[in-house]
């Protein structure tokens, strides 16, 4: 079920019997109807093994299960909310940016080091995003948070896009990411342009970039 | 020519075809094509610029962005306003200037006591020439016209930039109430007289005057 925008910082979702939704714990603002909120001890789908995986990967943001019948409004911290409707592809997003998503989406954890080897590991460290990221796959919708709104930039094989790691929010599709370093003597003497590390995204898909260089 | 366009209200997209634009250090959020980033130093070029910067403290950290493709800029989710200059001078706080076209010259001028009350130092940045400049404001800025008959008074913390032929002076309304800690929070104001435009943001920086 897709999310309905109420304003730039609030979304509404319909909940029907038999359909589950996951949301960040405490992100509910208001609801109508008979809706229950149960803390998800395993932090999402996939049972205990997935839970251990997420704990190890430090991608275990507390989640809750939303069930019942009615409409629920979500929002968090006054941050802007962006929604993405997935039709089979994969969305890569940091777990703490994930606000809510359909239970029909498969949740997973990906080791960023597997893309780009050593540089992937450095990427996680340099950007403060950690070595793992959350993936959502399947058919359904997801809502995620960004500071100051999001612009969507298309990535095509002819047009790779470079993103400031701090402004990167999420990406979807068949996109490879690679950290590129433009370190020169200027950075060494402390006169850098502030753009020493960039995330290069190539392939076919979309990247979401926020209008700020602040983490949530 | 470099073209500036706004994507939403908080992201500036700049299309480049080989030329260079000046932008606030670290304000790039994304680019495609080929871009190089080189740190420059504000306050004018050459040795004179260096001395000016050291003395004034108005060292706007600027980078030169050169290449072909599109580059997107944003800064802490603040709103972006495009200003087209046709020969006049734009006075703006260094921290509020996001990007300027290559044809524009930037420099530093003395503002007197007003600067200190704004929490921005005694100097301000000037942009001269013909072309577009992008300035930042915390919240959407409003543009207020000043004419000879209607002078304008603004809060130093909400002032962003001004253009045109304006004289400015700081006025204070300190009274015995301020001294006993019962001030209205509006003890200092900047008064603009002449002909021109003043950009004001719906937010106030923390200033010395704001506490009184």
From TrEMBL, chain A:
Q: Which organism is it from?
A: Actinacidiphila guanduensis
Source organism, top-level taxon? Bacteria
What Pfam families does the record point to?
A: AIM24 (PF01987)
Q: Which SUPFAM superfamilies match?
A: TRAP-like (SSF51219)
Please identify the protein, giving its name as recorded: Uncharacterized conserved protein, AIM24 family
Gene3D superfamilies according to UniProt: Mitochondrial biogenesis AIM24
Automatic annotation (TrEMBL), chain B:
- By what name is this protein known? Uncharacterized conserved protein, AIM24 family
Q: Which domain of life is it from?
A: Bacteria
- Protein source organism: Actinacidiphila guanduensis
């Amino acid at each position: 079920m897709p999310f309905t925008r109420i304003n730039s910082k609030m979304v509404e979702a319909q909940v029907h019997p038999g359909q589950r939704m996951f949301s960040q714990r405490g992100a509910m603002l208001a609801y109508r109807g008979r809706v229950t909120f149960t803390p998800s001890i395993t932090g999402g789908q996939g049972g205990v093994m997935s839970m251990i995986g997420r704990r190890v990967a430090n991608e275990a943001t507390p989640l809750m299960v939303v069930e019942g019948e009615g409409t629920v409004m979500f929002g968090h911290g006054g941050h802007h909310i962006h929604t993405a409707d997935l039709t089979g592809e994969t969305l890569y997003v940091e777990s703490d940016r994930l606000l809510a998503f359909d239970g029909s989406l498969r949740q997973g954890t990906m080791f960023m080091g597997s893309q780009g080897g050593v540089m992937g590991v450095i990427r996680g460290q340099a950007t403060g995003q950690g070595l793992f990221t959350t993936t959502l796959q399947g058919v359904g919708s997801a809502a995620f948070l960004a500071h100051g709104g999001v612009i969507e930039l298309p990535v095509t094989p002819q047009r790779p896009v470079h993103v400031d790691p701090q402004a990167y929010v999420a990406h979807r599709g068949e996109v490879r990411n690679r950290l590129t370093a433009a370190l020169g003597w200027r950075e060494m003497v402390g006169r850098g342009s502030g753009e020493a590390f960039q995330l290069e995204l190539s392939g076919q898909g979309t990247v979401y970039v926020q209008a700020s260089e602040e983490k949530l | 020519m470099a073209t500036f366009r706004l994507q939403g209200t908080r992201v500036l997209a700049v299309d480049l075809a080989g030329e260079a634009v000046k932008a606030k250090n670290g304000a790039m959020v994304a680019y495609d094509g080929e871009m190089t980033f080189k740190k420059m130093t504000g306050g004018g070029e050459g040795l004179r610029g260096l001395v000016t910067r050291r003395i004034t403290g108005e060292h706007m950290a600027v980078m030169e962005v050169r290449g072909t493709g599109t580059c997107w800029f944003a800064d802490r989710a603040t709103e972006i306003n495009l200003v087209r200059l046709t020969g006049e001078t734009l006075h703006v706080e260094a921290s509020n200037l996001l990007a300027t076209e290559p044809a524009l010259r930037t420099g530093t001028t003395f503002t007197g006591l007003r600067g200190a009350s704004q929490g921005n130092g005694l100097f301000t940045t000037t942009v001269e020439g013909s072309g577009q400049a992008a300035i930042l404001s915390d919240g959407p800025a409003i543009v207020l016209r000043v004419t000879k008959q209607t002078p304008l008074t603004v809060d130093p913390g909400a002032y962003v930039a001004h253009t045109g032929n304006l004289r400015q002076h700081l006025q204070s309304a300190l009274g015995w109430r301020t001294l006993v800690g019962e001030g209205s929070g509006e003890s200092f104001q900047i008064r603009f007289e002449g002909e021109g435009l003043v950009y004001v943001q719906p937010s106030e920086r923390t200033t010395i005057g704001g506490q009184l």
